[in-house]
Design a protein that fits this description.
Elements: H1 10-13, H2 18-29, H3 40-64, H4 69-81, H5 91-116, H6 140-157, H7 175-183, H8 192-206, H9 210-233, H10 250-266, H11 269-280, H12 300-315, H13 319-328, H14 340-359, H15 368-375, H16 378-382, E1 389-391, H17 393-409, H18 415-421, H19 425-435, H20 443-456, H21 459-470, E2 483-487, E3 493-497, H22 506-528, H23 536-552, H24 569-598, H25 607-626, H26 632-652, H27 657-663, H28 667-676, H29 680-694, H30 702-712, H31 723-728, H32 730-749, H33 779-788, H34 794-809, H35 813-816, H36 819-829, H37 835-851, H38 853-864, H39 873-890, H40 898-908, H41 914-931, H42 939-952, H43 956-973, H44 977-980, H45 985-998, H46 1002-1023
Antiparallel strand pairs: 1-3, 2-3
Helix pairs in contact: 2-3, 2-5, 2-6, 3-5, 3-7, 4-5, 5-6, 5-8, 6-9, 8-9, 9-10, 9-11, 11-12, 11-13, 12-13, 13-14, 17-20, 19-20, 21-23, 22-24, 23-24, 23-25, 25-26, 25-28, 26-29, 26-30, 26-32, 28-29, 33-34, 34-37, 36-37, 37-38, 37-39, 38-39, 38-40, 39-41, 40-41, 41-43, 42-43, 42-45, ...
Protein name: Transport and Golgi organization protein 6 homolog
InterPro entries: ARM-like (IPR011989), ARM-type_fold (IPR016024), HEAT_TANGO6 (IPR057407), Rtp1_C1 (IPR019451), Rtp1_C2 (IPR019414), TANGO6/Rtp1 (IPR039600), TANGO6_N (IPR057347)
Organism: Leptonychotes weddellii (Weddell seal)
Length: about 1050
């Protein structure tokens, strides 16, 4: 049967609604009103009369009611395009045809309504924020009407035409089914097979709509599958007597077979398994009479077909689970819904059936070995109940202790022993990470085992194992995805089945996954901190740098592809590959960050590692140049690495012939840098280093010496070499400065900012020594630092700002004399985009404000309170940070500037910018926390502002800040709150209760709950002060 076109009745679809179609279905399905006797023949007549009456009533309604005119037009359009017979002398088929036509009308109308639906954007600030309901959605009562119509179609149009043994007979279902079986006239045209084919094809057509398909398949899948089995696979006569006896063409039979396989793939697989088992039937039954006969045995062709289809279900992914669920779901009621013993017996019979099904190899499998290889791994997964303990605490503890004794205590690095531990290293590291989350007596054992095996392995295998620990190598074994570690009662660990993740918990599961990966990398850093002496930590760090170079060579522009809706499957796979590469890049950066934080200056233990480090840096710089991705950080990193080579060539390390042989690995990279790098200074230095290495240090240019001297920071702030300091620190300079340079280089590779940036000593932060006195800063030094504050190199500028801040903090006379110029420098650097620069500027302005609050504080308040036209929102936020630090630094002296500070922050709470409002409230909280009793005169203004913001502000961040101010206020005042806030304490309490009850944001609720707890503690101590056991001694006059 050809599916009706969606365009059919397009004009009718414009006005024909769901209500008229469902009303027509109700009219067609309405029960008869005549009285029926007790005789069976009377019930047959009543059914036939009711069907005829409902058909006539429907036709009259369609002809006479003007409201149903469009419905009649749509039905006629679909009926004219249909290629299946609709009229018959058999009233049951006429009734079924009309019901099928109305169902097709319903499907077309729902598709049209959904296509025209264009919901507006919901207003998220109103209670009606839920998305608009699609107009093709059926209500509960409408779904019941459709279900009734489907029940009639299946009962009258499918079940009566199934041959004996196919499906469950109508007589075995209900009394009404027995009546229908007798009423249907199989001799009247159209042929029974044609009726069955038409009913099944139309139902499958209706099921293409998602909501209608769920209504059809959830209750009638078995009957439709039985009909398709009969239509597609039932044997026909080999040589028909007449051509017209061939009811179905071969093409229609092929379509039926394809439709059967399609619906078997679409539906819930346990449902498909259960229905196929019902169709296949059981062993033959002895039938003595009609009353005891349940059903005929399924024909041989159907049993073979169901067996083949069941085998296909079993061989699919998760097929064992589908078979188990299909058989066991609904078990437990017993054979007749009786006692518990009957229920248990029925369950065991079903389990026995499952075992027989799984144990028998299907014919589709190539061999029994292949079958069992595919099926056996699925069996444990299908039996995993969440919470079941797989490995007890005692078993796991004993296992770890035995491994520790055999490997660590025995300390025999035999190849067989070492290789036997490799497959479980990933699981052992996961266990070690879990023990780091809490107290466990097996943590030290796991750590010692891991350190022992990493020290005994070959370096390549050790690096490969560390890659697996970090998540860079997915082939390294780990704990099964369905299992998890759990803390046990005696301080040990046990292994259990993981709880299933619900749809509502997907965000929480993602958060747990990201947190777990972060903790895993950090624990790896802690483990590598113990592997520095053997050189493993340095080798792994260099490996991470090389990985970063590889990912840097990939073109970032590849991610800018078309949107998902216009992508093909190949493009989606390519996009997924790019996303995985980006994930790997982020993981490498995270690893480098953790290693730079965890490792000490003794990371590199030999010159080979230092050369590998420099080579990785040069390769990354060349890769960035090839992709035209040069940046300031890349340029600085390249300068630092080449300076490190100059340090080694300048005598910081005693180089022998073997050392120069290692350094020669850098010659091709230095040559490439000298050819392609745009900076002429770096080009010249690369050429000079190339010459120096090639001549084994026999020839060295002045540029190499200057670079080495600048890198080692041999110059003091005044530019003179002090012989005593040089003699006392000579050995330290040769080693520790080189190590310090390496640690700074690691920070540069990951884009991190070091606390002591590596820059020439002329612009470095002054050292605070015991013999340093105020006034030691000279005018030349100050001028040099002032010039460095405008240097385009970010580390140089930031270090200069930090130096100025330190001089202000030490109250250096020369620096304080230029306070206005320094303030101008700091304020200009507040506009800088680099975090290290503007944070250094913020620190400097805060120190100046602490030193000269009368001159600077009011200007900062005016800048903070200015419009967005004068200063950007980012600058105002940075000034707000300065004010917060100033308030903290002033301490009790802040009371002198109470009025301008409070008024500025209160005005900021009404600023149009939500970020500025939140910043003002945060500063207000810091201020109120330190005012104590001086807050009394403005407490009403502050309280009114907080109440208004917490109740009416539209931005959640601002409401959070307002509630947080109350927390800080109560926490700062403590027991003084009952005196300072006595007039507004009740209002604040009501506000907090309002937030807890009505605030939609969980964070704001948490702040309010914390404030209520603070208030509760304050009031308890006020009402019930602690008893002090003291004795007063009074001296009488």
């Amino acid at each position: 049967m050809a599916a009706p076109q969606q365009a059919a009745g397009g004009e009718a679809l414009e006005t024909c609604g769901l209500e008229s179609i469902l009303e027509a279905l109700k009219l067609l399905l309405s029960p008869g009103g005549s009285d029926s006797g007790s005789l069976q023949i009377t019930k047959h007549d009543v059914l036939l009369v009711t069907l005829n009456s409902n058909l006539s009533a429907l036709e009259d309604k369609l002809l006479k009611d003007p409201r149903w005119k469009k419905l009649k037009f749509l039905r006629d359009e679909i009926a004219n395009k249909a290629e299946w017979p609709q009229n018959s002398v058999d009233v049951t088929w006429s009734f079924t045809s009309q019901a099928l036509l109305l169902l097709l009308c319903l499907k077309e109308t729902m598709i049209h309504l959904a296509a025209d639906f264009n919901p507006g954007k919901p207003n998220l600030r109103t209670p009606e924020a839920a998305p608009a309901l699609s107009p093709d959605t059926l209500s509960i009562s409408q779904q019941k009407t459709v279900q009734s119509a489907l029940q009639f179609v299946v009962t009258l149009g499918v079940c009566p035409y199934l041959v004996p043994g196919v499906g469950v007979p109508l007589r075995c279902r209900t009394e009404f089914g027995a009546i229908v079986q007798d009423v249907v006239c199989l001799d009247a045209p159209p042929h029974a097979t044609r009726r069955l084919y038409s009913s099944c094809r139309v139902l499958l057509n209706v099921a293409r709509h998602t909501s209608l398909g769920s209504l059809i398949f959830c209750r009638h899948f078995g009957d439709i599958a039985a009909g398709l089995c009969q239509l597609g696979f039932c044997p026909t006569k080999r040589s028909p007597l007449k051509p017209e006896e061939e009811v179905l063409t071969e093409e229609e039979r092929t379509l039926s077979r394809e439709a059967l396989r399609d619906i078997l793939d679409q539906v819930y697989q346990p449902l498909a398994v259960r229905e196929l088992l019902i169709l296949q039937g059981g062993p033959p039954q002895s039938c003595t009479d009609e009353k005891t006969q349940v059903r005929c045995r399924a024909p041989a062709w159907l049993r073979r077909l169901c067996g083949q289809l069941l085998s296909e279900r079993l061989m699919r992914p998760s097929g064992v689970q589908a078979v188990v669920r299909g058989i066991l779901e609904g078990a437990g009621a017993g054979a007749a819904g009786g006692s518990d013993a009957e229920a248990a017996a029925a369950d065991w019979k079903k389990c026995d059936l499952i075992a027989k099904i799984l144990a028998s190899c299907p014919q589709q499998s190539l061999s029994a070995e292949d079958y069992y290889r595919d099926i056996c791994p699925q069996i444990p997964e299908s039996d995993m109940v969440p919470g079941i303990i797989l490995v007890t605490e005692e078993e796991l503890t004993m296992c770890i202790e035995d491994v520790f004794k055999v490997y660590v205590v025995g300390n025999e690095p035999v190849t067989v022993l070492v290789d036997s531990l490799l497959p479980v290293l990933g699981v052992l590291f996961s266990l070690y990470c879990f023990t780091k989350q809490s107290v466990s007596h097996i943590r030290s054992l796991c750590q010692e085992i891991l350190l022992w095996i990493l020290g005994k392995l070959e370096r390549k295998k050790a690096i490969a194992s560390l890659k697996g620990f970090a998540g860079l190598d997915k082939s390294v074994s780990s704990l099964h995805s369905l299992c998890q570690f759990r803390a046990a009662t005696q301080g040990g660990i046990m292994v259990t089945i993981k709880e299933a993740i619900c749809d509502e918990d997907e965000d929480e599961a993602l958060y747990q996954k990201v947190s777990s990966e972060q903790c895993q990398v950090e624990h790896l850093g802690d483990l590598l901190a113990h592997c520095q002496e053997c050189g493993l930590a340095g080798d792994f760090f260099i490996f991470c740098l090389k990985e970063l170079t590889h990912v840097a060579m990939e073109n970032e522009a590849e991610l800018k592809t078309k949107p998902f809706s216009s992508k093909s499957l190949l493009e989606l796979e390519q996009h997924q590959t790019l996303v995985e590469r980006q994930e790997q890049k982020l993981l490498v950066l995270q690893l480098l960050t953790v290693l730079c934080e965890r490792m000490s200056e003794q990371l590199f233990t030999n010159i080979t590692q230092v050369v590998d480090f420099v080579a990785a840096t040069l390769q990354r710089a060349c890769a960035s140049l090839a992709h035209q991705a040069e940046s300031t950080v890349e340029s600085q990193t390249l300068s630092m690495s080449m300076g490190l080579v100059a340090v080694m060539l300048g005598g910081a390390v005693q180089l022998k012939s073997s050392g120069f042989a290692v350094l020669k690995q850098l010659l091709p990279l230095l040559e490439k840098v000298s050819e392609v790098y745009p900076d002429p200074v770096i080009q010249e230095l690369a050429v000079d280093l190339h010459i120096t290495i090639s001549t084994h240090g026999a020839f060295s240019t002045e540029a190499v010496s200057v670079a080495a001297q600048s890198t080692l920071n041999k110059k003091d702030p005044e530019g003179e070499l002090e012989e005593q300091q040089q003699a006392s620190h000579e050995s330290y300079t040769d080693e520790s400065h080189l190590q310090q340079q390496q640690s700074h280089e690691k920070s540069k590779q990951t884009g991190l900012k070091s606390d002591a940036p590596l820059i020439p000593q002329e612009v470095s932060e002054p050292r605070t020594t015991t013999n340093q006195k105020s006034g030691s800063v000279t005018t030349d030094q100050l001028q040099e630092i002032l010039l460095s504050a405008y240097d385009p190199q970010i580390p140089t500028r930031a270090a200069a700002l930090r130096s100025l801040s330190c001089w202000i903090e030490r109250r250096e006379t020369k620096a304080l004399e230029m306070q206005e110029k320094l303030l101008k420098i700091f304020l200009e650097n507040l506009e800088h985009e680099d975090t290290f620069v503007y944070l250094s500027a913020i620190r400097g302005v805060a120190l100046l404000s602490d030193a000269y609050p009368e001159k600077i504080l009011l200007g900062l308040l005016a800048q903070y309170d200015s419009d967005e036209d004068k200063h950007t929102p980012e600058t105002r936020m940075k000034v707000g940070e300065v004010l917060m630090r100033t308030v903290r630094a002033l301490g009790d002296m802040v009371s002198k500037y109470r009025e301008p500070l409070i008024h500025t922050f209160l005005r900021g709470a009404r600023d149009p910018d939500s970020a500025h409002r939140a910043s003002s409230l945060s500063n207000l909280g810091e201020l109120c926390q330190r005012l104590d009793f001086l807050l009394g005169s403005v407490v009403h203004e502050v309280t009114a502002c907080l109440i208004a913001v917490a109740k009416t502000d539209r931005e959640v961040q601002v409401r959070r800040a307002a509630i947080h101010v109350i927390v800080l206020l109560l926490r700062g005042l403590s027991q003084k709150a009952t005196e300072v806030l006595r007039d507004v304490l009740k209002d604040l309490y009501h506000l907090l209760k309002h937030v807890v009850r009505l605030e939609p944001d969980d964070v704001a609720k948490l702040h309010a709950q914390l404030a209520l707890e603070e208030l509760d503690e304050i009031m308890r101590n006020f009402l019930f002060p602690p008893q002090k056991l003291e004795k007063k001694i009074v001296v009488l006059p």
